[in-house]
Known about the structure:
single chain; five-stranded antiparallel sheet; Alpha-Beta Plaits
Amino acid sequence: MYPNESECPFRATLQAAKPERTIVVCGVPDGLLNDDIMADILMIHFQKAKNKGGDVEGIVYPTSTKGVAYITFEDERVAENVLKKGEHGLEDKRLHRDYPLKVSSYGKSIFTCITCVLNLSPLGEKYSLEDVVQDLKKNLPNLSFGPLHPTGQIRVQGPFLAMSRLQNSILLKIKHSLSEQHVTRKQRRPDHRPSLKWVSDGLSSELRNNFVQNPNKEGLIVALDTDTYRYMKKFKDKLYQDCLEKCGVISYASVDGDITTIYLDSDNTRPGPSQLEQAKNLVESLLAELYCFLRKERLSQEGSNRTEKRKCERACEIVSSQYPNILIIPYSTHIDIIGSSSDVYEFATQVNKMVGNFQKEAWR
C-alpha cells in the first residue's frame, strides 16, 4: 500500500492495471489530521459492511488534487457496491464532525476529479444564492460543494462531465437573468457585467461580451477539459476543423486551468442557429468518443532531484516513439500522459523500467 502518492513515483502503474477495482473519493477533509491518520480513517470507512465496503488493497492519499484519494479494493464487486451506495459520510472519533464524500469510478472518465472556484455573485440580484446552491446539489449529486462564501464564491469538486453540466447550468441562469434585466430596465444604468471564474481573463472583452454577457447572441458554448482539448487539437484537429467547416462555423478557445471553453460562432456564410446547433452536436460527438477511451495518468516527480527528473523525461522521450498516440505534458512536479488505457499502462510500465535501468547503470 502507498499511503502517500509521493512514495509511489509511478502511480500510473498502480492504478491503470486495475481501474475496475479503483474508486476516486472527493471531499476528503484536508489539513485536519496527519496524512497517515487520514489514510487509516479512509481505509476503515471503506472496509465497513455498512458502507458496502470490503478488503482494501491500497490507498493513495494525499494526491496532487486537494481532498482527493484513490481506493483500490481486492474485489471488483466491492468497488461496484461502494459506487452504488452513492452518498458516503466520513465519520471517526478523531474527526470533530461527519464529512460528506463523493465517490466515482476511476476507469470511466479521463478526468476523475477536478476542482474549481465558482463565482455565483452575478446571480445575487435575482436569486437567493443559498437556494441556487441547494438546487445545484440536488440536480448534480456527483459534485461536492464547499461552504458558500459571503462574496458569492464556492469551491466545487467532482468529475469533469458533471462540472461541465454545472457550468452550462450557471451560464443559462446568467443569460436568463440578463435577458430579463434587459426587458424590464426602465432607465439607462451603468452595465454591471457578470463574469465567471471559468471565462479566461485572456479572452478579449469583445468576445466575452458576445458569448457570455449578450443574451441575444446566437453563438454557442462547449465546455471541455483542457487536456482533452489539447489531445483533440493534436490528434483530431483535422476532424474537428472539418466539423466546423461543414456547418459554416468558426471557433475560439479560452483556456482557464482545468477547463477550456470553446465558443462557436457563424462565419456568416451560412448564418443561423440550426448551423450552430449542428456544429455543437458534431463537436460534442467527437468529444464523447474521446471520453470513451482516453485516460490520463500522472508520473509523479515530487521530491526528485534534477538528475532524477531528467532521467524520467529522457525515458518518456525514448518510449514515446513506440506510442504515437500518447500525449505527454511535462510539469515541474509531474508528467501527465494521455491516451488509451492500454497505451497509458504500457507506456508507464516501460518508463518505470527504463528509469530503473538508468539508475542501475549509474550505480555501476
